[in-house]
Amino acid sequence: MREGLCPDCGVHINICVCDVCETVADAPPLWVLQHPTEVAHSKGTLRVADACLPGLQTLIGEQPDAFSTLSARSARVPMGVLFPTLSSQPMETSDTSGISEWIVIDGTWRKARKIFLSNPWLNDLPQFHFDTPPASTYRIRKAPRGDSLSTAEAIAYLLEQVCPKVDTGPLKRSMNILVRRQLAQMPEDVQRRYDGQNRDQ
Hints:
tRNA-uridine aminocarboxypropyltransferase; six-stranded parallel beta sheet; 34% helix
């Protein structure tokens, strides 16, 4: 481990939020399929979700062999996939009571799509998308669309839809602190640019 990096999340201690992450209780099991290129990305938000959600498990890879254990499990346990497809259902209005565990894909849109298309077993599971997602507050990283959410934000919104009694406040607070700490490491002119982008959204 290089000097100055958090031994738990692997990012620099100046932007680490492990010290403020609190547990989100009673959330259902979550599986995150993470593209390998996202692992070392300092702007990734999965580390925040991982610190707040003890039932979250991350599998790194792209091809089926990386997810063989989960694929086999999905044949026994009712699972849903958060990924927009031609047959996906809107999360906000769908009955998800029969689903026990959830799968989320972490990566850019192009890489997430490649993971989905490379794993036909995912297409055998019910797929869901967000119809009316909230505006993203994670303005540090560029998004391909105005209604895009970071991985942690998507997980928080998913939980709010399928488990309304689950308090996602700890996850959202940790995300807000992450943004503030990342902005604090930037020159003032760069901070102003991000603030301006946020006002325009």
